[in-house]
Design goal:
There is one protein chain. The chain has about 220 residues and is of the alpha/beta class. The chain is globular and about 50 Å long. It is built from seven helices and seven strands. Helix 1 packs antiparallel against helix 3. The chain starts with 5 loop residues before the first helix and ends in a 6-residue tail after the last strand. Helices cover about 35% and strands about 20% of the residues. It has a single domain, classed as 3-Layer(aba) Sandwich (Rossmann fold), CATH 3.40.50. The structure holds S-adenosylmethionine. S-adenosylmethionine (SAM) binds next to helix 3 and strand 2. Keywords: Methyltransferase, Transferase.
Length: about 220
């Protein structure tokens, strides 16, 4: 199993974010495997760069580029008054969330800037004009059905044959998840499409391989 260096792990653990270490290690291993295809690795849901640190290092190790996409205004559950809100992510002048500066700091401090392209915008809007194959797509964006389905529909078709689709926050039991089960429903949708085959489960992180052409 590919594992990040102690320095990269330290940068991951220092970064604000929601991914626990054991899921991060599974993400890293999948990203190194997918990087061997020689295609970019794309994440939907940068937040402050915690998982992006691992994708960036996997990209560095395999000679590809990591792309990470976010509008940087936060998901529903990260807004003021909600369970996952962090007041430090609010722009003091505008009074709205802006995680882009923290993300850039995270990446700079980790020495990984040159391996990452940050896409700042709404996932469906960027996906609408995307037209290039990807070695890996990691869906970790909005948790509503609207957002999770749009991420799947916009990005899963770009996973190359043999490439990987990763979905985070997959909770089959509703009592385990406060932000809803949309990622679980998208995970089922991917499996039922016949285009993806599951290759690993690490807690709420699912890794699927593109094994079929047609996506429904
Ligand atoms: C759960 S956080 C990502 C966590 C991050 N991967 C980590 O490891 O810490 C979800 C992110 O998705 C972003 N997001 C939600 N809906 C989005 C959309 N439609 N387009 C772009 N970004 C979106 C939010 O702004 C938020 O930063």
């Amino acid at each position: 199993m590919a594992a990040p260096s102690p320095a990269v792990l330290a940068a991951f653990e220092k970064a604000k974010g929601f991914m626990p270490l054991h899921e991060g290690l599974a993400l890293y291993d999948a990203a190194v495997e997918a990087g061997a295809l020689g295609l970019p690795l794309l994440e939907v849901g940068t937040y402050c760069g915690r998982s992006a640190v691992l994708l960036a290092d996997a990209a560095r190790q395999t000679g590809v580029t990591a792309l990470t996409l976010d509008h940087h205004r936060g998901s529903e559950e990260q807004q003021p008054g909600w369970e996952y809100h962090d007041p430090e992510t609010v722009d003091p002048e505008l009074g709205v969330m802006d995680t882009l500066p923290t993300f850039r700091r995270t990446l700079y401090q980790a020495g990984l800037e040159e391996h990452v392209v940050a896409l700042v915008g709404r996932s469906p809007q960027v996906a609408a004009f995307w037209n290039a194959p990807l070695g890996l797509v990691f869906i970790d964006g909005g948790h509503t059905d609207e957002h999770a389905n749009a991420d799947y529909e916009g990005w899963a078709p770009h996973v190359a044959e043999g490439g990987l689709l990763l979905i985070h926050d997959v909770f089959p039991d509703p009592k385990d998840e406060f932000t809803g089960q949309a990622p679980y429903r998208v995970y089922l949708r991917a499996l039922e499409s016949g285009a993806f085959t599951e290759i690993s489960v690490t807690d709420s992180l699912r890794v699927l391989r593109r094994t079929g052409a047609e996506i429904k």
